[in-house]
Amino acid sequence: MAWLVTGGAGYIGAHVVRAFGEAGIDTVVLDDVSSGHESFVPAEVPLVRGTILDGALLQDIFATHEISGVMHIAGFKYAGVSVQRPLHTYEQNVTGTATLLAAMADAGVGRIVFSSSAAVYGTPDVDLVTEDTQKAPESPYGESKLIGEWLLRDQGVATGLRHTSLRYFNVVGSGYPDVYDTSPHNLFPLVFDALLAGRTPRINGDDYPTPDGTCVRDYLHVADLAHSHVVAARRLESGDELESAYNLGSGDGASVGEIMSTVAEVTGIDFTPEIAPRRAGDPARIVASGELAARDLDWKMRYTLRQMVESAWSARHAASNAD
């Protein structure tokens, strides 16, 4: 038996696939490689190139492979871009998830772990976000993730689907030297790309009500994230009861200014970030409690901020040298 990992050729998905392999659990990857990389998928793992919108392909995967559960990570993940491309976002994230759930039901596959997002909360007015914090997404992306959670909930009522959703905050770092974040919108790759190109990284706003004036975010190491995915899958297979959703958060957070200082120390590239205007909609602080996930999914912060930066830089620098 194997778990189907949608989006398994992406930065997060590839870490999850490798964590499954290290735990002795077989996987099959479905990915259209639009933002992922075939090289991220281990050679021994079957890779099906395609999209979750292709119901016939999904049916073929379930008929060809013995799938015991689905790790649903595929999706359009760019919150800012989703505002300009709402229909594309809903098609990929809502219609795609519905198509996947329909194929699962037809094949009798009754377990799923869903890659959700902190974007379901929008701009929370609390110091520490919990799973019960009001859901107020501010982008089509955040809305699509919340709808995805509703789809799982409703399918659970209708068919007995066993499910949980993991709400990510800011995922960084690398667990392997050949897998790294290639998103054109995430902070770490933006900073690294600027440094490698001889440009000065920038900070959007330094006048927030935070200790150093820059936004505070919850940064999580991708290897810790992947580990809790494996635990969630195992617990669903064991018939354990899980919460419908978990925040994967640190309970603490770090500022963008701290990230910049740590990057300068790790890379040995001395720079003073350029200060750009605030971006509309950027809250001063978003930090989440990970208590429920710690209780149920062996969630913990095993890496310091410096180790997160070191692992991310090492993988990205190695990739740039290989190009």
UniProtKB/TrEMBL annotation:
Record-given protein name: UDP-glucose 4-epimerase
Catalytic activity as recorded in UniProt: UDP-alpha-D-glucose = UDP-alpha-D-galactose
Taxonomic lineage from the root: Bacteria, Bacillati, Actinomycetota, Actinomycetes, Micrococcales
Native source species: Humibacter ginsenosidimutans
Gene Ontology biological process terms in this record: galactose catabolic process via UDP-galactose, Leloir pathway
Domain NAD-dependent epimerase/dehydratase: 3-249
Coiled coil: none
EC number(s) stated in the UniProt entry for this protein: 5.1.3.2
Cofactor dependency: NAD(+)
Keyword field: Carbohydrate metabolism, Isomerase, NAD
Pathway the protein takes part in: Carbohydrate metabolism; galactose metabolism
Top-level EC class as recorded in UniProt: isomerase
GO MF annotation terms: UDP-glucose 4-epimerase activity
Classification via Pfam families: Epimerase (PF01370)
Family of this protein: Belongs to the NAD(P)-dependent epimerase/dehydratase family.
